[in-house]
Design the sequence.
């Protein structure tokens, strides 16, 4: 009996101490909070479906013009601010701007037949967006979806073949919408890394090339553009 009482006397304080230890918050055990502003750098690869069609008559857009599949890299900056709610929901707003080298060359096509005397190049020079973001915090992980306004600047140059001598070009800016999804990870309390997929549809916009000889406008065209991209980023949260 004395042995049992002695064992209980030893075990009870140890048990109480262990129970007390479960209420101690150790460094690094706190849940990460995504609230705050941040700025970062990004890089990625984009591919697109585009058409520059002539609009001199009804139905001519699809039958006369240039079909492009531009692709290439881009890189730039992004910045935003998040607010995390007690439920784990994270809402934010973000803007980004990148310089791009997304381009393609092709032949002019009329009624389904390539014209060997004429070609063209379509290049996206810059891309950017202003978007809302929504995610759910899982400690240092933040899966998210995003959507908003997308803008892109392009240059369309038409050339004489062979030799690819330019004879007309146009620079323009188009706007549309973008949707995407990705995940972000807080490597430290301040440094964040992410991966993301983005789709953008810029719709169809008027595009008028001008002669490089005398600046005269040619028959009006229209540019139709959609893009896809994969991007990674590193940001600093304040």
Sequence:
């Amino acid at each position: 009996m004395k042995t049992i009482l002695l064992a209980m006397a030893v075990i009870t304080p140890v048990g109480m101490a262990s129970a007390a230890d479960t209420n101690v918050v150790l460094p690094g055990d706190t849940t990460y909070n995504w609230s705050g502003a941040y700025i970062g750098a990004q890089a990625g690869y984009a591919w697109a479906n585009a058409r520059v069609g002539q609009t001199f008559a009804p139905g001519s857009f699809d039958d006369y013009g240039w079909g492009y599949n531009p692709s290439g890299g881009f890189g730039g900056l992004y910045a935003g601010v998040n607010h995390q709610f007690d439920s784990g929901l994270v809402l934010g707003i973000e803007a980004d701007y990148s310089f791009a080298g997304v381009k393609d060359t092709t032949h002019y096509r009329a009624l389904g037949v390539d014209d060997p005397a004429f070609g063209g190049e379509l290049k996206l020079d810059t891309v950017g967006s202003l978007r809302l973001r929504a995610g759910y915090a899982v400690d240092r992980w933040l899966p998210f979806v995003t959507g908003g306004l997308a803008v892109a600047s392009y240059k369309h140059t038409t050339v004489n073949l062979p030799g690819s001598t330019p004879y007309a070009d146009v620079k323009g800016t188009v706007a549309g919408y973008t949707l995407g999804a990705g995940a972000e990870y807080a490597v430290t309390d301040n440094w964040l890394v992410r991966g993301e997929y983005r789709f953008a549809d810029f719709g169809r916009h008027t595009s008028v090339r001008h002669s490089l000889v005398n600046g005269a406008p040619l028959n009006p065209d229209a540019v139709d553009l959609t893009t896809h991209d994969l991007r990674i980023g590193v940001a600093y949260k304040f």
About this structure: The chain has two helices and ten strands. Residues 1-29 have pLDDT under 50 and may be disordered. The first strand starts at residue 36 and ends at 54. Helices lie at 2-21, 60-63.
